[in-house]
Specification:
The chain is an all-alpha fold and 211 residues long. The chain has one domain: Glycolipid transfer protein (Glycolipid transfer protein, GLTP). It has eleven helices and no strands. Helix 3 runs antiparallel to helix 4. The radius of gyration is 17 Å and the shape is globular.
């Protein structure tokens, strides 16, 4: 197991623990565990080969941009999503909209992808249809709306090549199938919680359509 971990293999447990740590008692979403959870999800996407590289490459870029904010001079403003929104909105909505490297815009892109992953993992857990169908349905209900037709077309074709549900559950790296399914059941509500707090926060501040 150590060798796999060293090689940066995906572990569902890691993602679960990161998203568990994300939400404080005050319902703030901490950026450090959020990014940690995303790093795990990126490894999950990468372990599936090139099928998801159009999403994982973008997520890698977004995560590293946010890491830059967190580690920068203004790092203390980027402890939580809430403090980030307050900080970036202080310059005014127009200034925020004009910035392509803002934390808010960057989180919004990850947020949309998180919804797709949440729906996809939910579909894998309930396992009532082929993975290509589950993935396509999840994509159409989330990310597809933000992708140009060419990307949507390519994605849908790529999803047809997805491995079976059993192969996916094996990639989860938590032992037998039942354990993987049980852990998905545990992880999905935490991911969903982070998603809905973010959605509410961004809606409240009219940030859901940042260009």
């Amino acid at each position: 197991a150590m060798a796999a971990a060293a090689a940066g293999a995906f572990s569902l447990r890691e993602v679960l623990e990161a998203f568990q740590r994300c939400v404080t008692e005050q319902r703030e979403v901490l950026l450090e565990p959020y990014l940690s959870g995303w790093r795990g999800l990126i490894r999950f996407l990468q372990s599936l080969g090139t099928v998801f590289s159009f999403i994982s490459k973008d997520a890698v870029a977004k995560v590293s941009l946010l890491e830059g904010h967190c580690g920068g001079r203004q790092g203390q403003q980027y402890v939580s999503l809430q403090s980030m929104v307050r900080h970036e909105l202080a310059a005014g909505p127009a200034a925020l909209r004009a910035r392509s490297d803002s934390g808010c815009r960057t989180v919004l892109r990850l947020h949309r992808a998180l919804r797709w992953l949440q729906l996809f993992l939910e579909g894998l857990r309930s396992g009532d249809s082929r993975t290509s169908v589950v993935c396509t349905d999840a994509y159409n209900a989330s990310l597809a709306a933000y992708h140009p037709w060419v990307v949507r077309k390519a994605a849908t074709v790529a999803f047809c090549a997805l491995p079976s549900r059993d192969a996916f559950l094996e990639i989860m790296n938590v032992g037998p199938r039942e354990e993987a399914v049980a852990m998905l059941g545990e992880a999905i509500p935490y991911i969903g919680d982070v998603y809905s707090i973010t959605q509410e926060l961004f809606a409240q501040h009219k940030l859901l359509d940042l260009p």
